Amino acid sequence: MEEKTLAKMQQEVDDYIQQFKAGYFSPLAQMARLTEEVGELAREVNHYYGEKPKKATEKANTVAEELGDVLFVTMIMANSMDIDLTEVFIKNMDKFNQRDQFRFERKDGRKKGENA
């Protein structure tokens, strides 16, 4: 099986969208869809880890399925705005590794201001 990178996944999503005349929806419509998918994810998390059990009549979805939907819609949104998610990921990790390096207690015991 071919290894999937974010770039390859974004291309696969674009190939999928390009087969339809409608193409990409507007950013506002995409934001509404992303919000809907995040809501569905929240519902599943609540069913599995919260205090609200699923009704017997509700479809059995999984947290993984809903996370997959969020990822798919995120890629659609990124593609439509010409955003390279690999580039964004690298920048975000750099930011978190700098800003939040000592935000939480570290397993190695290091604290802010100490040398590695």
UniProtKB/TrEMBL annotation:
It comes from the Bacteria. Residues 26-103 form the NTP pyrophosphohydrolase MazG-like domain. InterPro entries: MazG-like_dom (IPR004518), MazG-related_YpjD (IPR012359), YpjD/YvdC (IPR047046). This is NTP pyrophosphohydrolase MazG-like domain-containing protein. It comes from Enterococcus florum.
